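Records of this kind hold a single protein each, on a pair of labelled lines. With that in mind, the following record should read easily:
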Amino acid sequence: SNMAKNFVCTGAQMAFVAPAGGVVAGKPIKMGSLTVVPLETASANVEFTGALSGVWSLPCDTALTTVGTAVKWDGAKLVADTAKDADDFGKLVSSGASGYAEALIVQ
């Protein structure tokens, strides 16, 4: 058949090696310009599975209440995309008024 033979995977979850300081399950990190949510906790230089897509419930600045708002991750919570010292994450799919929001990773 003429089907492509170079497909690797969907890219939804992939294996990575944890950076210095390790990773914590459910806490977003940046690997280069990739947004990665580790599915398990791992020490530095240990392989872990990371999600590259999906919707995640995360701590959020309570001022962010509009679905579709672009957000960054500052290491502790989702913040406005104008924030300095924060990494691109994606878009809110729920209000953050409660202190938590659901956000879609956008690479």
Observations:
- The beta strands are 13-17, 29-31, 34-38, 47-51, 55-59, 70-73, 78-80, 87-92, 100-105.
- The CA atoms of residues 36 and 52 lie 5 Å apart.
